[in-house]
Amino acid sequence: MHEPGRIRSSEITPVEVYTSRRTVLGCIGGALALGMGGALAGSRPVHAASRAAIGTYLPMSVPPLDSITPREYATRYNNFYEFGNDKSAPSEYGHALKTDPWSVEISGEVHKPGRYTLEDILKPHDLEERIYRLRCVEAWSMVIPWIGFPLGDLIRRFEPTGAAKYVEFKTLYRPREFRGQRALFSSIDWPYVEGLRLDEAYHPLTILAVGMYGEALPNQNGAPLRLVVPWKYGFKSIKSIVEIRLTRKRPRTTWETSNPREYGFYANVNPAVDHPRWSQKEERRLPSPLFSPNFIETQPFNGYGDLVAGLYAGMDLARNF
Ligand SMILES: Nc1nc2c(c(=O)[nH]1)N[C@H]1C(S)=C(S)[C@@H](COP(=O)(O)O)O[C@H]1N2
Ligand SMILES: [Mo]
Q1: Which of 90, 120, 211, 321: disulfide with 116, CB 3.0–4.6 Å?
Q2: Which ligand is nearest to the CA of 193?
Q3: Whole-number pLDDT of residue 66
Q4: How many Cα atoms within 13 Å fall on the side-chain side of residue 221?
């Protein structure tokens, strides 16, 4: 029997996977450059150090449970409430979002605050492919090949002050393009806000993604820039980011604000702490046909515990859920 707990996320990828990844990466610069008005034209190949890092953080492939989810599921079954509440709304209405030009405001406890163009944000970073599990709090999951770079590398460039303890992220607020933001009744306050403790933000697994499946991010997946934190429930991985703020105090996040009994700030994937309305012990790994659902055991920290559990040493994770 397959034992999900035995999958070590730090397993090194076999050579043939690694080789095909390089080929894929070869196309990324071009694809992204097309999608971003040339921002990444001439983007450098992934250098040796980050290639090693890719190997280190790839989950070991254990087919069929941990094989990559077909792209059409990852791009057509989405949560992006700015476009509406249905899973199909983001792919149906995503075209309305204008992602060029795009800028990101960096503010708060940093020595170099400012509003930066997407080009300036991305320029110094080498892109890497990271194949991560994505576990939604609604108890379904996928395995997605992201393209991005470590969030910590970006944060360091803006020189946080000694007082910075948390990072707050905001999604674009633009009701003319986000039809969900025009809805009269909404379960959430706009803009969508998320946050991380600074050490979580600096963790090498935490990335900002600009692409997936070898291409620029589709709008429904959070173009042009979104967070990916693979050991936390999917709602932490905020899409279409326009603001990154370093703070002294813990940010008030969207889901915590909307229902603090059901959604916490930490939101670490944890099969031992059920959602008040459903179990978190199992998940449906997509594709999961209605009449033969593909249930698998949920792993603590989504299977990345050997790399991240230390961040929470001594904390009561049932209280800090
Ligand atoms: N701005 C914003 N970010 C968001 C959401 C959202 O509604 N708005 N949904 C979150 C949830 S609940 C999940 S599961 C993931 C889904 O990411 P995907 O559609 O790329 O798989 O995005 C997260 N990021
Ligand atoms: Mo989610």
Answers
A1: 120
A2: 1
A3: 80
A4: 23
